[in-house]
Amino acid sequence: MAGGIVNNRFRHGKTHFETAPGIPLSSTTSGMRFEKAVLDPDTGPETILILTDTTPFAHDLACRRPFELRLTSGAVRTSFGPVLFLFWYMPPVTNGKPFALFEHILNPTHTGTLAGLQQAANQTHLHLVLVGPGSELLDVYEFENVFDIGNLVPICEWACREYPEMDFTAANHEYNDTYDMMELFHEGLSGA
Questions:
Q1: Domain spans in the chain, listed from the N-terminal domain onward
Q2: Given strand 125-132, what is the order of strands in its sheet?
Q3: Residue 44's pLDDT is what?
Q4: Is the previous residue joined to 24 through a cis bond, with omega within 30 degrees of 0?
Q5: pLDDT of residue 30
Q6: pTM above the 0.85 mark?
């Protein structure tokens, strides 16, 4: 079904997971990441988002009702090549700060990045797996895919042509030294 829209909505409404076989939950660092996983055998593999928070705040997130997720994203130039940023956040935004904000940095020249973004963009829904301290599976959430992840695909395609051997570690260091996450976040909000 290459290139087509995949309906990956949970077929029976809110689904409860006790465990997540085949999904790599263990992580020693907090943050967001994409993974390929099978949550529903009838749907098959999909790109999911895993939010790991190794602090007690993960339980505060799990108690949020409703659990809302928003995204502002883009790319910045470094002298080594572009860096993609995705700022996943949870409202409300009060005094310029969201309730929770997670920075998700991607290498646009990595073939897995391009394939993952293409697959995520072609899904009707995005599933988020919330993982707490000790790799505890706290919950799985389903969101209608209104995140416009597809706008990052052309940037990846261009970067792969223009920077085929980019030193992403150096680009990421320059990104961290040059750009302020909250400034980029606010620029994204004002452009939305």
A1: 31-191
A2: 31-37, 46-52, 125-132, 136-144
A3: 87
A4: no
A5: 87
A6: yes
